[in-house]
Amino acid sequence: MMTRDRFAAFLLGLLLPLAASAIDGEELLRKVDRNLNPESYEMYRKLINIEPDGRRKEFVLYSVKKGRDKMIALFLDPPSEKGRATLRIGDNMWLFIPEVGKPIRITSLQSVVGGIFNNADIFNLDYSAEYAVEKYEQRPGGHYLELKARTGAVAYDRLKMKVDGPTLLPTEIEAYAASGLLIKTLHFKDIKDFGKGIRRPSVLETDSPLYKGYKSILIYANIGRRDLPDEAFTLEYLPRARELR
Amino acid sequence: MRVRLLAACTAACLAGSAVAQVEEKYGFDVGKFEKKPFELSGYAELRAESFRLNRGAALYKLNFFDHGARTRLDRTSGALEVSALYRHGIATFQATAHGEVSRDNLQSGGRTRIHEAYLALQPSTGLRLEAGKRALRWGKGYAWNPVGFIERPKDPNDPELSREGFTVLGGSFTRSFDGPLQTVTFNPLLVPTSARLNRDFGTGNHINPAARLSLLYRDTDIDFLILGAGARGMRYGFDFARNLSTNLEIHGERARIHGATRPVLGAGGSVTPQSGDITSYLLGMRYLTERDTTWIVEYYRNGAGYTEDQMRAYLKFANDAYDEFLATANAAALTRAGALQPSYARANPMRRYLYVRASQKEPFDILYFTAAVAGMYNLDDRSWSLAPELAYTGITNLDLRLRIFALHGARLTDFGEKQNDRRIELRARYAF
Question: CB of B122 within 8 Å of any CB in chain A?
Answer without folding.
Answer: yes
